[in-house]
Amino acid sequence: MAQLDRLLAVLVSRRGDSLRLVQDEPALLVRGAETQALTRVPVTPAQMLAIVREVAPGDTEQRVERGEGAQFEYTLGADAFVGRVHREQGRLTLDVTPRPSANGNGHGNGNGNGHGGATPHVVATVAGPRVDTEARAAMETLLRDQMSRGASDLHLRSGERPMYRIDGDIIVDSSIEPFNPAYLERMLGSIMPDRNRVEFEEQNDTDLAYELADVARFRVNVFRDRQGVGSVIRAIPSRVVTADEMGITPEVQRLCDLSKGLVLVTGPTGSGKSTTLCSLIDLVNRTRRDHIITIEDPIEFVHANKGCLITQRQVGQHTSSFKHALRAALREDPDVVLVGELRDLETVSIAIETAETGHLVFGTLHTSTAPSTIDRIIDQFPADRQSQVRVMLSESLKGVISQTLCKKVGGGRVAAREILLTTPAISNLIREAKTFQVQSVMQTSRRLGMVTLTDALVELVDAGQVEVFEAYAKAVDKSLILQALKSKGHDTSFAEKTK
C-alpha cells in the first residue's frame, strides 16, 4: 500500500480537504475549490481494485455493484481518515478525507511516516447515495427508451416533451408530459461528474460521456437556453462495428496498414464520422501490434486491447486540449494517433508534423467534400506559410473519406462516402495549388478505389437503397448529379418542380 500511504501523507502535509482516486484519472488533491494532480499518469482499473481490496471492507465490491457504495475508517500512524468507495459514471471511485481529531482541527499530528508500519483500522458502514437516485432512474429510463426505439439522439428541453431523432427525423414522445425545468436539471445533474457540474455552473454548457451498463455509452451535451436547461444525447453503440460491416472498401482499409501519414474522415455533424473512425481504429487494433493513442472530447467508443495497446485520453479530463495532448503524444511512443477533431491551426499543424515524423494519424474535419478538406486545411494558415503547408500536406496526406448519411429505403440510414486516395498526380495538384482539378482526377481514378460523392450517391440509388430525391438533396453539385441520374434512366422530374 506504499502508493496510497504516500498520497495520504501528501494529503496531511498539505492540509488538503480530500484525496480523490478515480480509475483512468490521475490522483487528485482537493483543497477548497482547487484540485491538484498528484500523479502524472492515471490510476488504472487494476490499481484501483487493488487499493480498494486492501483498505476497504471485504464486501465493498458487492455493495458498490449494487449501487450502495461503502464507507470505512482507516488509520495510518497517528492520522485517521474516512474513505468512501462508489461508482461514478461506471468508474470505481475512492474519496478519502481526514477524520477530525480530538483537537477538532480536522487533521492528525502529521507524524505518520507513510510506510508499512501502520496497521489499518477498518470500520464498515453503508454510505448514503451521493446521487439523486430518483432523477437518475428517470434519466436512465429515457436512455433505455432511446436505444429501444433505435434513436441516434435524444433531445431534452425545459417545458417540452422528450424528442428522438429516428432515421434522421425528430419524433416527439407524446406519452410523456413536458419536463419541469427544475426536475430536468435534477435528471441531468444526476449523471454529471463533479467536474462537469462545476463547468456547467461556470459556462452554462458542458460535454460528458455516460455509460449505462449492458446498454450503451452516450455522448451528452448539456446547455441552457431561453427556456432553461436542455440536452442532446447521442447514443454510441456498445459493440464496435467492423470495417467490413460498415461497408468500407478494401482500398480504404489498406490505409490502416500504413506506417505513417494523415488520414481524414470528414462530413457534417451527425454524418457518422466517429463510427467510421472507430471501425478503422478497430481494424488497426485487430491486425497490428502497435501503440494507439486516441484524443477525444469526450471518449465515445471504448476499445479493449486486442493486438495493440490502446491509450484513450479525454480532453478536459485527462488533458487540457487537443493540441496539448497531441504534442505530448509524441513522447508517449505512439504508432497510431487518433485526433477526435482538428479544431484549430496549431492542432492541424502538429497533426501534419506528427504524420511526417513516422506516425499514422487519423483526424476529423467538418467539410463536405475531399477537395474542400484540402482547401480548409491550407486556408487555416497565414498566407506566408501556405506554400510550405502545401508541400507538407502533399507528402503526408494519404486519404480523405468524406461522408454523408442518407435516409434508407425501408428505414434506417446509409452512408455515401467520397474517397480520395493520394497518388503522385493528387500530390502534385496539392503542391501546385490546383485543388480545383482534384475532382477530375478522382473521376478518372475509380480503378484505384477513388469515388466522388456524386458517384457514391448514384450507386446507392441504383442499388435501391436510396430514393432519387434523397440523393439529390444530399449532393453538393446538383446539376452534376441530375445529369448522372438522367443518364442512368432515373426520373428527375421533381427537380423541375422545385425550380
Number of discrete helical segments: 18
CATH superfamily of the largest domain: P-loop containing nucleotide triphosphate hydrolases
Average pLDDT over all residues: 88
Any idea how many domains? Answer: 3
The termini sit apart by 75 Å
In helices, the fraction of residues equals: 25-40%
Beta strands, count: 20
CATH fold descriptor of the largest domain? Rossmann fold
Using the 3D structure, state the CATH architecture of the largest domain.
Answer: 3-Layer(aba) Sandwich
Beta fraction: 25-35%
Which structural class should the secondary elements be placed in? alpha+beta
What is the makeup of the main sheet? Answer: 7 strands, antiparallel
Low-confidence spans? 102-130
Tell me about this structure.
The structure is a single chain. By secondary structure, the chain is an alpha+beta fold. It folds into three domains: 2-126, Beta-Lactamase (2-Layer Sandwich), CATH 3.30.450.90; 133-236, 2-Layer Sandwich (Beta-Lactamase), CATH 3.30.450.90; 250-451, Rossmann fold (3-Layer(aba) Sandwich), CATH 3.40.50.300. It is 35% helix and 26% strand. The strands form three sheets. Strands 3-2-1-6-5-4-7 form a seven-stranded antiparallel sheet. A seven-stranded mixed sheet has the order 16-15-17-18-14-19-20, with helices on both faces. It has a six-stranded antiparallel sheet with strand order 10-9-8-13-12-11. β1 (18-22) and β2 form a beta hairpin.
